[in-house]
């Protein structure tokens, strides 16, 4: 330690900068790493706690004189644990992603691709529907009064209840596969977009509207040059909420069909066979997919919004 | 006289009455005013005297209850549709998603002028308010005074003969306000546009105007019109002259009389 600090005293500035950089890096990553560390400790403790009764009943009760280490080792390496340990999920994920070809149903990326295609289609349809509804509502008080109650009511119906109905009805028209799932995804997507856009399109103040009035601007000009750009800061957060909700919709849409593929199908088969590790892997994969999709929307926002930060 | 200086704005017996639950509010009561081409007119008075309402009536932002308004011989609505005036609001009202240049281009775009030509015109207007080199910035990168200058450049967009300004420097500090007053005066004396300027500052009104219209509240009406014969090439120093002080005194007296009638 002394050998490090002595040259530093001779040249204090570089040492200060290096130490400063290290402190800054810790300042950024430190809180995140701390939270992850605490979560892992809690998770492992919970896994031991929850899996212990089974381990004791099935294995350890036959081996008298077992210790705490035996208990921990066995609870963290069960085949079908109540709560799998983090490393089991990581190993299962890695095996699935790297151990099988991309078009194999044993590869989780294959399922993620199927679910995200339904999500993206539903997201596009939901955003368009939300935008159309918002424009109609902003332009007509009558439409606002007649549409808004239905829009709100649509979101109070549990998606788990309505998803099988949609799948069955569309199936009777011969529509199967991605499309019915994306309808359910759209159903969850359009609401945040519609509500945020109504607010955004109405956000210009009296002064901005009067300014357009003094230019003898028509409704078209006011809409495209004032209302639409003013609504973008409201639109993008709602798109991020929308795509995350759309992912939930697509996964829920995969449950009642007994779908062959998709993250929802993986969750379902996992719970059929009591394969908890598979359920958790699919869960982690959906969470990662959600991060990727909302990240993509954030990138789109950055590309479209001029002027950088405001 | 009228052939030499044709009326740009004619206001005849205009009243604006707002219906209210208990008793109606008379914002303007039988106001008449002629504004000739090339004049710099200030409307001054305490708040509630209807000076902004009068400006908004001329700009067709407010409807009259009775009376007649003509701008360039047209009704105020037709004049607005013909883009006869530029209007500067109390706040800059710049669009935050547009650069300075794109903000100044806005009225020209709406007017259907080709982009290249609009940008050229906008750059020229920005230079006239002393903002060359700032065209690529966004409004939030500018100070309040610079933002208001952008909004003046924007109002000059169609080269309007008539410029209407509603307390444009009210929110700025006094030093910035003095500098902008000088700039505005130079712009006016160089180009001889007609300017109608609403303010509640006596020094500002006296420094800028060729005629000062003093108004009083409840109901809003004109109590005095004071001619100013200060030289056109005046600078801020003129505020220390006797001539300036005399005119300022007359304005103050007129304001007090207007107030006294009420109480």
Quickly give the structural class of chain B: alpha/beta
Q: Which shape of chain A, going by the Cα principal axes?
A: globular
Task: Bin the strand percentage of chain B.
Answer: 15-25%
Radius of gyration of chain B: 19 Å
What is the CATH superfamily label of the largest domain in chain B? P-loop containing nucleotide triphosphate hydrolases
SS elements, strand count of chain B:
10
Helix and strand pattern of chain B: EEEHEEHEHHHEHEHEEH
Number of helices of chain A: 12
> Architecture of the largest domain in chain A in CATH?
Orthogonal Bundle
Helix count of chain B, per DSSP? 8
Average pLDDT confidence of chain A is: 86
Describe the structure.
The complex is a heterodimer of chains A (310) and B (263). Chain A is mainly α. Chain A folds into two domains: 2-82, no CATH class; 108-304, Orthogonal Bundle (MetI-like fold), CATH 1.10.3720.10. Chain A has helices at residues 2-10, 12-58, 68-75, 86-99, 108-139, 141-156, 159-172, 178-201, 206-214, 219-254, 263-272, 276-304. Chain A is globular, with a radius of gyration of 27 Å. Chain B is built from eight helices and ten strands. Chain B has helices at residues 51-58, 76-81, 100-110, 115-128, 144-155, 174-191, 202-208, 242-262; strands at 7-18, 25-36, 40-44, 66-71, 74-75, 85-88, 162-166, 194-199, 211-216, 221-227. Chain B has a six-stranded mixed beta sheet with strand order 6-7-8-3-9-10, sandwiched between helices. The radius of gyration of chain B is 19 Å and the shape is globular. Classes of the chains: A mainly alpha (310), B alpha/beta (263). The A-B interface holds A 207-208, 210-217, 221, 225-226, 229-230, 232, 305-307, 310 and B 59-61, 80-83, 85-87, 89-91, 93, 95-99, 106-107, 109-111, 138, 140.
How would you briefly describe this protein structure?
Chain A has 310 residues and is an all-alpha fold. Chain A has helices at 2-10, 12-58, 68-75, 86-99, 108-139, 141-156, 159-172, 178-201, 206-214, 219-254, 263-272, 276-304. The model of chain A is unreliable at 1-12 (pLDDT under 50).
């Amino acid at each position: 330690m002394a050998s490090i600090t002595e040259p530093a005293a001779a040249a204090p500035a570089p040492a200060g900068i290096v130490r400063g950089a290290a402190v800054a890096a810790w300042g950024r990553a430190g809180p995140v790493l701390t939270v992850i560390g605490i979560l892992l400790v809690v998770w492992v403790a919970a896994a031991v706690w929850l899996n212990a009764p089974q381990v004791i009943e099935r294995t350890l009760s036959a081996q008298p004189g077992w210790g705490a280490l035996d208990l921990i080792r066995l609870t963290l390496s069960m085949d079908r644990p109540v709560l799998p340990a983090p490393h089991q999920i990581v190993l299962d994920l890695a095996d699935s992603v790297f151990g099988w070809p991309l078009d194999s149903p044993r590869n989780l990326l294959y399922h993620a691709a199927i679910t995200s295609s339904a999500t993206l289609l539903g997201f596009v349809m939901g955003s368009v529907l939300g935008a159309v509804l918002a424009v109609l509502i902003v332009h007509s008080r009558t439409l606002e009064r007649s549409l808004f109650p239905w829009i709100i009511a649509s979101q109070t119906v549990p998606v788990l209840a309505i998803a099988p109905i949609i799948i069955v009805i569309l199936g009777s028209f011969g529509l199967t596969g991605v499309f019915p799932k994306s309808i359910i995804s759209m159903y969850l997507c359009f609401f945040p977009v519609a509500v945020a856009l109504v607010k955004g399109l109405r956000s210009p103040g009296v002064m901005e509207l009067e300014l357009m009035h003094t230019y003898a601007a028509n409704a078209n000009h006011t809409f495209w040059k004032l209302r639409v750009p003013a609504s973008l800061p409201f639109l993008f957060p709602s798109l991020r909420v929308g795509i995350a909700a759309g992912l939930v919709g697509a996964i829920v849409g995969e449950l009642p069909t007994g779908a062959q593929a998709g993250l929802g199908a993986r969750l379902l088969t996992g719970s059929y066979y009591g394969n908890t590790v598979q359920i958790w892997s699919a869960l982690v994969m959906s969470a990662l997919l959600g991060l990727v999709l909302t990240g993509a929307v954030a990138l789109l926002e950055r590309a479209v919004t001029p002027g950088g930060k405001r | 006289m009228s052939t030499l200086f044709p009326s740009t704005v004619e206001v005849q017996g205009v009243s604006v009455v707002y219906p209210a639950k208990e008793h109606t509010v008379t914002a303007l009561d039988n106001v008449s005013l002629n504004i000739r081409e090339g004049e710099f007119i200030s409307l001054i008075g305490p708040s509630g005297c209807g000076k902004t309402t009068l400006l908004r009536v001329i700009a067709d932002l407010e409807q009259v209850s009775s009376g007649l308004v003509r701008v360039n011989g047209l009704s105020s609505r037709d004049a607005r549709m013909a883009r006869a005036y530029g209007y500067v609001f109390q706040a800059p009202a710049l669009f935050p998603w547009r650069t300075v240049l794109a903000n100044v281009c806005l009225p020209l775009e709406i007017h259907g002028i080709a982009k290249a030509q609009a940008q050229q015109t906008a750059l020229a207007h920005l230079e006239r308010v002393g903002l060359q080199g700032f065209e690529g910035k966004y409004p939030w990168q500018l100070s309040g005074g610079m933002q208001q200058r952008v909004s003046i450049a924007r109002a000059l967009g169609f080269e309007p003969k008539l410029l209407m300004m509603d307390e444009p420097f009210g929110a700025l500090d006094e030093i910035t306000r003095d500098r902008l007053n000088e700039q505005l005066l130079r712009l006016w004396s160089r180009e001889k546009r007609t300017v109608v300027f609403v303010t509640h500052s006596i020094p500002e009104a006296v420094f800028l105007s060729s005629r000062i219209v003093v108004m009083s509240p409840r109901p809003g009406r004109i109590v005095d019109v004071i001619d100013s014969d200060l030289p056109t090439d005046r600078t801020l120093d003129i505020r220390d002259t006797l001539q300036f002080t005399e005119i300022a005194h007359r304005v103050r007296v007129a304001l007090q009389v207007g107030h006294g009638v009420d109480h």
